Amino acid sequence: MDLDKPRVGRNFDKSTGLSEESAKEIAGVFRQTVDENLASKIDLEQVRSELKKDIELLRGELQKEIAESKAGIIRLIVAGMLVAQAVLIVALVKLL
After folding, report:
1. Given this model, what pLDDT does residue 51 score?
2. Mean pLDDT by 10 residues, the chain (96 residues)
């Protein structure tokens, strides 16, 4: 935000009846407050960039966890099928 103290001071002086010195001081305090507390477009772009990186990192981690979960489920299904097959073989052997 472009706050030219002399220009703001003159305009403020004319419209409010304050002295130019007081108007400049108010403009200075206002500018400092704006500079310290408001995000600039550059600040927002930096945050946006950091968030994109974080999202991509989390997406990769989530995809890895999903793949690991799928592999674990497949192992459990195969193990269950092997146990069921063994039980079936034992039952058939007893019947014969």
Report:
1. 97
2. 53 66 82 84 94 97 97 96 95 90
**CB atoms < 10 A from the CB of 11, how many?**
13
Interacting residues of 27 by C-beta distance below 8 A, sequence separation 6+: 3, 5, 8, 9, 12
Q: What is d(CA 52, CA 65) in angstroms, rounded to the nearest whole number?
A: 20
What are the distances in angstroms from CA 24 to CA 8, 12, 33, 70? 7, 8, 14, 67
> What amino acid is encoded at 2 in this protein?
D
Q: What are the sequence ranges of the domains in the chain?
A: 1-38
Per-residue burial over 26-54, b = 16 or more CB atoms within 10 Å of its CB, e = otherwise:
bbeeebeeeeeeeeeeeeeeeeeeeeeee
Query: What ranges make up the beta strands (E) of 36-85?
Result: none
